[in-house]
Amino acid sequence: MSRDQVLDELLAEHGRTYADQAGITLRDKPAPLFQLLVLATLSSAPISADVAATTAHELFRAGWRTPERMRSATWQQRVDALGRGGYRRYDERTATVLEESAALLEEHHGGDLRRLRREADGDRDALVEALQEFPRVGPTGARIFCREAQAVWPELVPFFDDRGLERAGELGLPTDPGALADTVGSDPGEVARLSAALVRSALADG
Question: In this model, does residue 88 exceed pLDDT 70?
């Protein structure tokens, strides 16, 4: 199978970002970036990526798409929504974490993650570190945020995590991030799709 065929098959089968699965229309705006932070927070627990995305979608379906709305919900309402999404094992603590995260974002950053972007000034490591000030978001969660955010923050391109690069090698694709990104062209959205597809493919193979 040629490299182009491998790419076509990979993207056809797995080329959906986790932001899209969570119901996030990702743009460089405060609300969708907050939603991506919620997804990264949920993904930081030892739980499947699909459950995290499904649960994020459930929270947004309840109307909590901004930090203000997240804080307006009661703790029990958040617990119930997390349970409906399948996030039961961590629901009670996570209900508190989501409120704490929304409060920190409002009080320290005016509710706008773009402030972190400006402060990082193109330094990806600085951004990854800054994202870890939010409750539960560690290095893995911060990288998940950046992997998805590269679709709207082009200075993050190319952003592939180790699992994705390893999967690229297994499929006969380049393992150098720049060369790998070049296989889908210069559109940041397509690089984000490829990055997510490689992770999904790796997870599907166990």
Answer: yes
All residues at 6 or more sequence positions from 174 whose CB lies less than 8 Å from its CB, including other chains: 168, 180, 182, 183
Read off the tokens for 107: 């009080």
For 62, list phi and psi in degrees, rounded to 5.
-75, -10
Taking residues 13-29, report their average pLDDT. Answer: 97
Phi–psi pair at 113, nearest 5 degrees: -70, -15
Cα 55 to Cα 51: distance, rounded to the nearest angstrom: 6
Q: What is this structure's pTM? A: 0.96
Amino acid at position 18, single letter:
Y
| Residue 206 pLDDT level (bands cut at 50, 70, 90) | low
Helix spans in the chain (H): 3-14, 18-21, 30-43, 49-61, 67-72, 75-84, 91-109, 114-120, 124-131, 139-149, 162-170, 177-182, 188-204
Query: Sign of torsion, CA 50 55 56 58?
Result: positive
User: Whole-angstrom Cα distance, residue 24 to residue 20?
Assistant: 5
Report the Cα–Cα distance between both ends of the chain, in Å, rounded. Answer: 22
Give the C-alpha distances (Å, rounded to integers) separating 152 from 9, 11, 26, 94.
25, 19, 7, 27
